[in-house]
Amino acid sequence: MRVERPIVLIGCGKMGGALLAGWLARGLAPGDVRVVEPDADLARAVAARHGVAIVATPDALEPGLDPSVVLIAVKPQRMADAVPAYRAFARPGTLVLSIAAGRTIAAIGRLLGAGAPIVRAMPNTPAAVGRGITVAVANAAVTPAMRALAAELLGAVGEVIWTEDESLIDPVTALSGGGPAYVFLLIDTLAAAGEKVGLPPDMARRLARVTVTGAGELAYRSEEPAEQLRRNVTSPGGTTIEAIKILMAEDGLQPLFDRALAAATRRGRELAE
Predict the structure, then answer these.
(1) Element (H or E) spanning 144, and its range?
(2) Of 37, 89, 211, 224, which is least surrounded by CB within 10 A?
(3) From CA 80, how far away is CA 86, in angstroms rounded?
(4) What is the CATH number of the domain that holds 29?
(5) What's the predicted TM-score (pTM) here?
(6) For residue 229, how far is the Cα from the chain centroid?
(7) CA dist., res. 41 & res. 44, Å (int)
(8) Do 122 and 235 belong to one domain?
(9) Are residues 21 and 126 in the same domain?
(10) To the nearest 5 percent, what fractions of the chain are helix, strand and coil?
(11) Domain annotation covers residue 1
(12) Is 110 a domain residue?
């Protein structure tokens, strides 16, 4: 991976750090990245691990810096305070790439000024192991070359899907953005249920964790749809079908997930307001 001009990464927490690691693993030179991270302990750890230049505030960046990309990886609640300091970079030749949940392209534009090329993206935490998935949307100022660069940067940590409809980002956040948390909850819930039918706690936790991750890997590698994979495990008259009857009942998993994703989508829209 190569860039003609440096990348400025604003925030190097879990997702910013995952992206940085992905870029460097793809061959980006550490000297092509400038990280702005106010947390001194985190900054020292990132600098020691990756050898990139890190400053605490944007005014400490070198004078005359002309980045190709400014990537916003701060929490949504910090956007209004953190982003306006980068208005000088918001020009036609610099792409602004935001991964902040609930912050629309219009809201980001108000913080940076009119005319900035902006891509809004929603990755998820499996990016930390290169298995994330990101949905991205661009405004009209983003050129084809900028779009390709955004795809390369986001693709360093997993798959990338583009949409032309920004309103889809809130349900995307609800499904894939929050989805890893739902899967981790499934592991805990499955383990707790295993204990209740007599398994020792350590065994139940191990069985649940490996079963869920193994099933996920099988789903990832298989060309069969998830429904067929489920049917492959569910023998007529066997034990699994009895559990599936409960999970697929009218008061089973589907209505729970319907309500859960609706609540998360609603919250995303509230943050945008």
Answers:
(1) helix 144-155
(2) 224
(3) 11
(4) 3.40.50.720
(5) 0.91
(6) 26
(7) 5
(8) no
(9) yes
(10) 55, 15, 30
(11) no
(12) yes
d(CA 57, CA 52): 15
> Are 139 and 19 part of one and the same domain?
yes
The mean per-residue pLDDT over the stretch 239-268 comes to 96
pLDDT reading at 146 higher than 80: yes
Domain end point (choices 164, 196, 223): 164
pLDDT in tens, 147-167: 999 999 999 999 999 999 999
- In which band, very low, low, confident or very high, does the pLDDT at 77 lie, cut at 50, 70 and 90? confident
Q: Of all residues in the chain, what percent carry a pLDDT higher than 70? A: 100
On whether both 59 and 11 belong to a single domain, the answer is: yes
Do residues 40 and 112 share a domain?
Answer: yes
What is the spatial distance between Cα 71 and Cα 57, in angstroms, rounded to a whole number? 15
Cα–Cα nearest to 68, from 87, 94, 90: 94
**Domain boundary residue among 110, 141, 164?**
164
Q: Is residue 162 within a helix (H) or strand (E), and if so which, with residue range?
A: strand 158-162
| Sheet-wide strand order for 69-72 | 53-55, 33-36, 7-10, 69-72, 95-98, 118-122, 132-138, 158-162
Q: What are phi and psi of 56, to 5 degrees?
A: -85, -30
Q: What is the pLDDT of residues 48-61, one digit of tens each?
A: 999 999 999 999 99
Question: What is the spatial distance between Cα 28 and Cα 51, in angstroms, rounded to a whole number?
Answer: 12
Segments forming the whole domain that contains residue 264: 177-272
Tell me the per-residue pLDDT of 104-139, one tens digit each, with 9 for 90 and over. 999 999 999 888 999 999 999 999 999 999 999 999
Report the candidate in 189, 172, 177 with the shortest Cα–Cα distance to residue 256: 189
